[in-house]
Amino acid sequence: MPSLRVPVSWLREYVDVRVPPSELAERLHMAGMEVDHVERTWSWENVWVGRVEELRKHPDADKLLLATVSYGEGRVTTVVTGAPNLATGAIVPYAEAGAMLFDPHAGRVKALEPRKMRGIVSAGMVLSELELGIGPDHEGIMLLDPAAPVGAPLRDVLGETVIQLEIAPNRPDALSLTGIAREAAAILATDFRAPPLEPLAHHLDPSLLTVRTEDDEACPRFTAAYLTGVRMGPSPQWMQQRLAAAGMRPISNVVDVTNYVMLEVGQPLHAYDAERLSGHLLAARLARPGETLRTLDGVERILRPSDLVIADEESVLGLAGIMGGEDSEIRETTTTIALEAASFEPRRTRRTAEAHGLSGSSGSAAARRFSLDLSPELPPVGLARAVHLLREVAGATLVGAVDVYPRPRQVPNVKLRFSDIGRVLGADIGRDEAGDALRRLGFAYAELGDQLVVTPPSIRTDIAIPEDIVEEVARIVGYDRIPTRQPTGVLPLHERHPLEVMRERVRDALVGSGLQETISYALVDEEWLSRLTPDGSPLAPEPLRVTNPTSAQQAILRPTLRASLLDTASRNMKTRRGLAIFEIDPIYLPRPGDLPEERWTIGIALAGLAEPVREGETWLTPERVFDVLDLEGIVDALHRATRSGRGTMERGAPGLHPGRSWRIVDDGRDAVVAGQLHPRVAEMWELPEATFVAEVDLALLLASGRPNAATAPPRYPSAWRDLAFVVDEAAAWLEIETDIRAVGVKGGLEDVALRDLYRGAQIPAGKKSFAVRLTFRSRSGTLSDADVERSVGKIEARLLHRFGATVRAS
Amino acid sequence: MTIALSDLADLAATAEREIAAAADEAALDALRVRYVGRREGEITKALKTLPSLPADQRPAFGAAANAARERIEAALERRGADLREAALARDIAGGAVDLTLPPRRVRVGRYHPISRTIREITRIFAGMGFEAIEGPEVEWDYYNFEALNIPPGHPARDKFSTLWVNAEGTMEVALAATGSGRTIVDAGRKQPMLLRTHTSPMQIRVMEQRRPPVRVVVPGRCYRFEATDATHESVFFQYEGLAIDEQLSMADLKGVLYSFARQLFGGERRVRFRPDYFPFTEPSAEIAFDCFVCEGSGTTDAGRCATCGGSGWIEAAGCGMVHPEALRRVGYDPAKVQGFAFGGGVERLAMLLTGTPDIRLFHQNDLRYLESL
User: Fold this and answer.
1) Which tens digits make up the pLDDT trace of A276-285?
2) Superfamily grouping for domain B113-134+210-370
3) Is A698 helix (H, G, I), strand (E, B) or coil?
4) What residue ranges do the domains of chain B occupy?
5) Do B167 and A590 touch (CB under 8 A)?
6) Rounded to an integer, what is the distance from CA A424 to the centroid of its chain?
7) What is the mean pLDDT of the segment spanning A164-174?
8) B232 close contact with A: CB closer than 8 A
9) pLDDT classification of A107: cutoffs 50, 70, 90
10) In angstroms, what CA-CA distances link B86 with A31, B29, B89, B90, B92?
11) pLDDT tens-digit map of A590-634
12) B139 shares contact with chain A (CB less than 8 Å)
């Protein structure tokens, strides 16, 4: 937002501020002029207004004096000083020990300490301008206004308060001292005093200066004045001080006047050396192909055909409303100037400034203003004010002025009803009060019964609709007049969002499983994607790229969560030996000609030590690293918590250990990809080998969900048998389990639990032994031993037939 | 050897003494065998003499023997219970564990502070009838800017430094269920794609798809081209609220946000409204809550309040009445309906709720930080 520094002493020229500056700032803030901060240009802790009560010679030094200084409330002290300009009764700044002062000998600000000079201790100091940091003078003590109240803090007498404001972009009228003064006058219910303007007769001999606008949309108004007898030099002290307090560097009287007027009334101006205008012409036109301009900042610029420029007969003089050129710049020898005050179309100005790198806070101050909708009523005001000041500070004589304004802008009349104010605000604001608020803001209005026709002041380009008027009234009566009320009315019919419900269930389930949730940047480093597979081949589709990334680390929209998980794990594993994390976020999959699919994905990562113990704590639980069955367990718990189906596992997935990973494909799309990170990939991320990741597609998880189906506890007792059998190493447990269940279901098999997996001395090489517990139960009665034995027999037969299993014991 | 009737009571008394003195279960068992054993117990032996007694003495003798047995068995029962009680007491006394030892650790999962805060926000607004919905993070320029009265070149675009995406496409404006017969000028126009700079585009998307009354709250990720520091992130989360009805006003907006503040931060929060500027609301406001740490005073015992920066107020959201132009654009009649919208930063609330000092901690995912919450 555009910012404005408002030195309060300057503001007082246009409005009587009868409240302390801090209160003024608060009231401005509460009326919509955002106060960024209030600064005292000098704070001067422990510095007071003092009076020299007595002066004596130092007994042991000819050039030193002993001054007795009183500084209020009966406080009296004696200081040693060498200043030649002191007299009894002088009002001077007095600093106590502890005051932060500029030390000319040390060349920096230091805390004042008592010191001994030729045997006499000086507790404090009387101060020069240099020590106070407000001027170069160190010869004598600064003499204050004899009327200054003795004992007052010096800052109350000398200090300047600057209110730093952030002005909303729809309020360019407020981006000036008089703009803020108008606001302050309205808020404080007092009068605004406009600064003196030079009367401008709009008549000028065209042989001296001709003004032309060739594009009255790009430059709706162009006013100019022709002045002679200009004496270039520095501007007066008061002007320099005000410019400095407002944050601008004084340069010369003519330039300072243009800057001063810009700050004062908000209209940027530009001064040309009139004798160097070819054809005595100032024309606003679009740049022509091939034209170039060397601007004041010394940059040679190639102009674009859409750039609006100010030109004379022969060449381009400047980028309109942005920056002047070096050639037509005023110089020390200039005596005749052409002063331009114009209106430029904001969007074009903004684009041109951006294209030439002159936008933003470091760019052109004029461009910042012309990028806003400045009123075309401002140029003649700015011009008249500048002419007045140039006559005062540079001895200039006005020869004449011109005003080219072919299509004057209409100020809107806004119609509304008084009742609209209450309807929008929900506050009871009386007609008189509303009318008073509008009057104070300089709005004209007519009442026709409940109807109100409001005409804003011409400089207010932001007022167009009834709601704008309502806001103006509310700003002035105060937003605190709006009561606090609970809405009434019909509650809307809500929608269900199953995906979001499922997402929160998953979040709960994973937190319940002991995992830490993480949320990482959705923008990632593209280089990460090449580190997800051992050979760098892509794992995910081509990502969407940010065209203007803040850094290479945030250049693409992530097409996978895996890289983020590995990055989070990798950074954390530098300070710990184990972690278990998850993230639920979208991945971004481009779709041609459309917004990308934002596919919600659950990402899980486990790494290093599995036991949730403190570092090194092994007294109860031996250290154990995660294995792929931990990951399976978490995924399984997720399925159970969400009542979602598991689908058919396929072994192996890209980027993962081929023998310790799986995926579940649903309708051609990965529903689950999980497993141990490929060791080469783990190495690239500096992660331990025991690193495991899973990615689950939330929408598919939802789609595979089963409805709730409650089961009452069984009524009849169960029976169990243990069974051990030897099979080939290649036989997968899931197939065996599935088969056992298929055969046993008729005989009342309720569950199969794996008790042991054994390989070793008692088993032939290439074989393994499973020990299982089979639990049987009937829904209609207690099973007999014979029933159970019959079922076990069938299962054994099946295992022998399908897997060549030999039963070891039962 | 025979026992006289008169001896039975003595026998019982002796047994009781010995039983009471039994040191342990084994001694007690020996006494049980000796006195009331079925074969060789004293009582059994006594009863065996019964047939040899004269018939008239038998009932008295039998009764006395039974009485003696009952006394002995009762004594055995008592002593047994005492011994078991003592044994249990000994076990318990010896079974004390040093409870100050480190326990068997259980893995504790935690929510990320952002998702936890979003839950809080949506839960609170749900209680006020606001339905939580979400929308796309990659968005058309139209929804992010134009439909919110921020056409290209508008100075308000400066506030939203935008990250653009290397794609463009043809936007389809959702016309579903409106039935207003309006025509959408922008339908089918080529649109630049961007990363939404705020959640406000959802105001338009929601209004395009629904008829009033509308009450929604929209949490979600947003993006800005912005240098990061302790209070700024280029990727961050916002929550957006929108309510449209026949007679909603600024007072209702104030009430809803007041209720939100109270529920989130507790106590008798005060709210402060001040004018602000957003192109898509008119009038616009910024809402601040009085600081829940210093109670609005701006100072704590430690000096200037670090939570509110000494102002006593915590600026929480931008808000205002939905601009009539935005209503018209989606086919609503501003003469019949009006409403309010608000939007604020999730991180800001999360920082306040958790005392997190630096916004960058949220995305760094240092587990030492996350586990401290």
Assistant:
1) 999 999 999 9
2) Bira Bifunctional Protein; Domain 2 (3.30.930.10)
3) helix
4) 7-93, 113-134+210-370
5) yes
6) 30
7) 95
8) no
9) low
10) 83, 17, 5, 6, 10
11) 999 899 999 999 999 999 999 988 888 899 989 999 999 999 999
12) yes
